[in-house]
């Protein structure tokens, strides 16, 4: 019996000792976007260079990931070592002390090469709290063949008047072609991303300097009226349930003459494998009304380390690898320059190989440069963020307002009713959160 | 004449039954079909039903990108484990309430059911903190435990109603013959309640297999079952319907096969207690 006990004890000690000697395992939470999936596929290259580190991936849908990660980070659960988070979360979480500042990315990381607007979006108090993995803005994608046929020429910086006029001219409802496809599905990251950016170009803002909601201003009324009327006349049926993916499918099937959406869509619509119109797509900056702001947003998916992680050193090593210039080169060598993660580094936009295969590169860069999270609209604002206000309450408020605006598009509410409901809902939430009395 | 009318009635009722059957099965059929389409075809408007370019590319991608077997094994352990433990607790509980009811039995049953009335998200943070303290996050035991607790009220209720249908006289006869409570439970009650037990087991297994809230929130990679495997194929930017359909088809395949082979017990169990 003694021997048996001894053997069991010995075996248990061995089992306990093995993990202590073994390598560090990083758990990385991410979303199922093409660039992230590519990164998962290339993990072997990282572990080859760092044999003492193994990597486990947790891929989740964006909203599920947000909820999952928020629960873990708020309870300091320590389940994740690297998180994929958006520019919306970075300043809020940094302020709460939920993220570890990235101070040891290595000598050859070249922080100065990061696009200034993107770098600003992931920094707080001069410290980098996340490293941008890919960045995006929004722009107009249009069908060159339809424009040519109608005798129209898309300017590089179109005005809303031109876009509206062209959309109406290009609509052929009986033929199943619609002048313009825009987001209509309710959600702070869906229709409100587009509408907030559009409102900026019309001079509207979410809040005034004293955090008073602004949906009762003429600027918002013009924005929403223009949007609803345009979509009624030149948009596809059922637009109030269309988000990014639905519009992408419509555009790729040749049903939209114009589509204003994320710059990352450019690589999807020009890919002949997925798109019927791959060789007939042109690009232009998001429209403006001459007030100095274009209707484009700024977003980046970033890698960050939660404060609960006990493997910060290995995590930072991984982040430095995945967001480095060398990683871009690695993707290019394996999958071609067209597939490298865009929108984070200046050097990429100076690379002739990339510029050759990415006809949309110049406009992506120009769109990112045109967006300013610190000064998103014409009038001053108390918040940071172009298509969102980086405050914790925004997700809830944005989705509530998005539902009102989606109802206005569907025709179940008037523009005035939707704006007034948005105003009272936002006022209520802001009062509850203590921003206003 | 009467024979003709009967034949016609049978034909009509068969057609109606098939129609409803197909209607209920249609989402699953559509998912199966979408899994063989390309992403562009899966999203196409108007959608194509059968005449599209059939491809198994999505299944290959899903196999290449995720470890299906690891997730499936976790699902089997978590769903199977939680169901078995729930049954072990529920059989004596339902037995005592069905055959030795007290003044408070009804209240207890209602109280048990009331625990299902609160949305699980309401207790997410406390449970998460408890699990963190006990080191149960991302563990199979943790998930077995929470799913077992979550389904226990339903299991007890189902078994209670089945047991209630069993005539007490038979049990009394067994007791007269000198059977102990344990023997009575194992040799008399259980065999008589087999259809009820089988359908409870199957239903509970399906509920545990499909449970997505707790499994998504309390697991990361080690204990992640098929629900997280499906969730990893939804994407905010990029077409994903075909791949998601392939992942979902793979995820429901085992339970579909199990359901197919045990449909006799399931139907018998679900109609148990009806007018015979």
Pair of chains with the largest interface and how many residues each contributes: A-B, 46 and 29 residues
Radius of gyration of chain B, taken over Cα atoms and rounded to an integer in Å: 23 Å
The rounded distance between the terminal residues' Cα atoms of chain B is 30 Å
Order of helices and strands of chain A: HEHHEHEHHEEEHHHHHEHEEHHHHHH
Query: Which of globular, elongated, flat, extended, rod-shaped describes the shape of chain B?
Result: flat
What is the count of DSSP helices of chain B, taking H or I runs of 4+ residues? 14
Q: How many strands of chain A?
A: 9
Mean residue pLDDT of chain A? 90
Largest sheet of chain B: none
Proportion of strand residues of chain A: 5-15%
Helix content of chain B: over 70%
Provide key terms for this protein.
heterodimer; A: 437 residues; alpha+beta; D-Maltodextrin-Binding Protein, domain 2; two-stranded antiparallel sheet; 18 helices; 9 strands; globular; B: 276 residues; mainly alpha; MetI-like fold; 14 helices; 74% helix; flat; periplasm (chain A)
């Amino acid at each position: 019996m003694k021997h048996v006990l001894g053997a069991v004890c010995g075996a248990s000690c061995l089992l306990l000792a093995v993990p202590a000697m073994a390598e560090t395992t990083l758990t990385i939470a991410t979303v199922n976007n093409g660039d992230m999936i590519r990164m998962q596929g290339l993990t072997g290259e990282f572990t080859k260079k760092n044999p003492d580190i193994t990597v486990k991936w947790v891929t989740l849908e964006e909203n599920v990931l947000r909820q999952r990660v928020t629960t873990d980070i708020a309870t300091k659960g320590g389940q994740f070592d690297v998180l994929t988070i958006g520019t919306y979360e970075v300043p809020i979480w940094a302020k709460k002390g939920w993220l570890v500042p990235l101070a040891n990315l290595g000598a050859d990381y070249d922080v100065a090469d990061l696009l200034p607007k993107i770098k600003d979006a992931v920094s707080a108090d001069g410290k980098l709290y996340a490293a941008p993995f890919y960045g995006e803005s929004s722009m107009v994608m249009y069908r060159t063949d339809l424009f040519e046929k109608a005798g129209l020429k898309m300017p590089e910086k179109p005005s809303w008047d031109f876009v509206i006029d062209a959309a109406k001219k290009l609509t052929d409802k009986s033929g199943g072609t619609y002048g313009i496809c825009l987001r209509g599905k309710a959600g702070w990251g869906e229709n409100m991303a587009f509408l907030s950016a559009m409102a900026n170009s019309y001079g509207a803002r979410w809040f005034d300097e004293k955090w008073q909601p602004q949906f009762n201003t003429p600027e918002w009324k013009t924005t929403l009226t223009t949007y609803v009327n345009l979509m009624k006349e030149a948009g596809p049926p059922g637009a109030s349930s269309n988000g990014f993916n639905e519009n992408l499918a419509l555009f790729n099937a040749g049903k939209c003459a114009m589509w204003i959406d994320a710059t990352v869509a450019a690589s999807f619509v020009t890919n002949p494998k997925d798109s019927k119109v791959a060789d007939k797509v042109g690009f232009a900056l998001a429209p403006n009304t001459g007030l100095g702001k274009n209707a484009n947003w700024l977003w980046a998916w970033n890698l960050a380390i939660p404060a609960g992680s006990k493997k910060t050193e290995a995590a930072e090593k991984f982040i430095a690898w995945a967001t480095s210039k060398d990683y871009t080169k690695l993707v290019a060598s394996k999958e071609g320059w067209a597939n490298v993660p865009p929108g984070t580094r200046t050097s990429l936009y100076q690379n002739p190989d990339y510029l050759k295969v990415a006809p949309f590169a110049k406009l992506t860069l120009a769109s990112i440069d045109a967006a300013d999270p610190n000064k998103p609209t014409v009038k001053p604002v108390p918040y940071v963020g172009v298509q969102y206000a980086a405050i914790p309450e925004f997700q809830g408020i944005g989705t509530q307002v998005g539902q009102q605006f989606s109802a206005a598009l569907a025709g179940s509410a008037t523009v005035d009713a939707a704006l007034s409901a948005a105003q009272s809902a936002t006022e209520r939430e802001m009062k509850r959160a203590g921003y206003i009395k | 004449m009467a024979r003709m009318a009967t034949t016609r009635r049978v034909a009509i009722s068969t057609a109606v039954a098939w129609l409803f059957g197909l209607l209920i099965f249609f989402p699953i059929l559509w998912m199966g079909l979408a899994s063989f389409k390309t992403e562009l075809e899966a999203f196409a408007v108007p959608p194509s039903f059968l005449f599209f370019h059939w491809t198994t590319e999505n299944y290959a991608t899903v196999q290449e990108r995720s470890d299906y077997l690891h997730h499936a094994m976790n699902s089997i352990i978590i769903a199977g484990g939680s169901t078995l433990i729930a049954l072990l607790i529920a059989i004596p509980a339902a037995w005592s309430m069905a055959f030795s009811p007290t003044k408070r039995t009804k209240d207890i049953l209602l109280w048990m059911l009331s625990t299902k009335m609160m949305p699980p998200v309401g207790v997410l943070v406390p449970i998460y903190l408890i699990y963190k303290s006990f080191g149960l996050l991302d563990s199979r035991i943790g998930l077995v435990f929470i799913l077992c607790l979550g389904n226990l009220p339903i299991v007890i209720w189902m078994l209670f109603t089945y047991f209630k249908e069993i005539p007490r006289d038979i049990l009394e006869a067994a007791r007269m013959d000198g059977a102990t409570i344990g023997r009575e439970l194992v040799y008399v009650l259980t065999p008589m309640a087999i259809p009820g037990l089988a359908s409870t087991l199957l239903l509970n297994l399906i509920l545990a297999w499909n449970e997505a809230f707790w499994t998504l929130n309390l697991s990361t990679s080690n204990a992640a079952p098929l629900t997280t495997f499906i969730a990893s194929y939804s994407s905010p930017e990029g077409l994903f319907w075909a791949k998601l359909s392939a992942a979902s088809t793979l995820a429901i395949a085992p339970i579909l096969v199990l359901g197919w082979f045990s449909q006799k017990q399931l139907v018998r169990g679900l109609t148990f207690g009806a007018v015979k």
